[in-house]
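Before relying on records like the one below, remember that each one covers exactly one chain. Contacts with other chains, cofactors or solvent are not represented anywhere in the record.
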Amino acid sequence: MTTGTYTNPVLNADWSDPDVVRVGDDFYLTASSFGRAPGLPLLHSRDLISWTLVGHAVDHLEPAEEFAAPRHDCGVWAPSLRHHDDRFWIFWGDPDQGGAGDAVLRTAEADR
């Protein structure tokens, strides 16, 4: 951990429903992106204070016709981030396109 002082908020934006995993000495975070694309941001930190956006898990939202105009009431909510065998797994429910139990999955190789 970095010693010293820092200013809150550590992440100066709306990072709703964040989920963080630790992979070795690194921390990764994802958060809800709702009706925005690219979506499911993936951030990286070594100290839980300084974060860098390293990518997104979703490049567009489906069905595209439902997201042709900005929407704030649906889309990608409350993701769950996991790491296993050098692969990141992000799960999120999609009640707008199915039932409350439906889940969507995106994976990505760890690039370290």
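The chain is about 0% helix and 40% strand.
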